[in-house]
Design brief:
alpha/beta, 7-stranded mixed beta sheet, globular, disordered N terminus
């Protein structure tokens, strides 16, 4: 009798272990890319009045292309309200490293992607690097860095970092929380994380 009870319990436990947990629906990669590009377009339009951008070719979450965001993001979230935890978690996960941005993004303006090597060449000459930069890119607001975008599961809330350096001591960086209203992304909140 005792063996039958143990056998029955083991059978139940094994059956329970083979049940797969419910999967949270996630967006497909093309849908996520399209939403991310839409967020970039809104953020750039909100922060700058430019028709051409110079964007760092790899993502960043802070000043000078840094990826160490833990304390900064904690500060940002303390100063934001009504953000979904899943949005912040998605932002952290999608920005665990620097990722290359795509050359074919549709962000509502023309842009070039600047590699770190390109930037080094501009600013390591015996001339003023910013003067050289603006001779080459006269309509750009400076050098802009973007993070990957964190989304909630419904893809109607987004968190992104955007920062632009425009001179040696001129620039600012922001974390922006966006929401989708009637199918259109709008900036809901923004927190400045640095200024020079």
């Amino acid at each position: 009798m005792y063996k039958k009870i143990i056998y029955s319990l083991l059978s139940i436990i094994l059956a329970a272990c083979t049940v797969k947990p419910a999967q949270v629906p996630t967006a497909s990669a093309p849908q996520m890319d399209a939403e991310e590009q839409s967020v970039y377009a809104v953020v750039l339009q909100k922060l700058y009045t430019a028709s051409n951008y110079v964007i760092m070719g790899t993502t960043a979450t802070g000043l000078l292309g840094t990826q160490d965001m833990s304390s900064t993001l904690d500060h940002v979230l303390l100063n934001m309200h009504n953000y979904a935890t899943e949005t912040a978690d998605s932002f952290r996960a999608r920005n665990d490293a620097a990722y290359p941005l795509r050359l074919d993004m549709e962000i509502g303006a023309s842009y070039v992607l600047l590699t770190q090597n390109d930037k080094t060449q501009l600013f390591n000459q015996n001339q003023d690097g910013w003067q050289l930069f603006y001779e080459k890119y006269p309509d750009a607001p400076g050098i802009t860095a973007l993070s990957r975008v964190g989304f909630n599961h419904a893809l109607d809330q987004a968190l992104v970092y955007a920062g632009t350096q425009s001179q040696w001591l001129a620039g600012a960086g922001y974390y922006l929380l966006l929401k989708k209203v009637n199918g259109v992304w709008i900036v809901d909140q923004q927190v400045m994380t640095w200024i020079s």
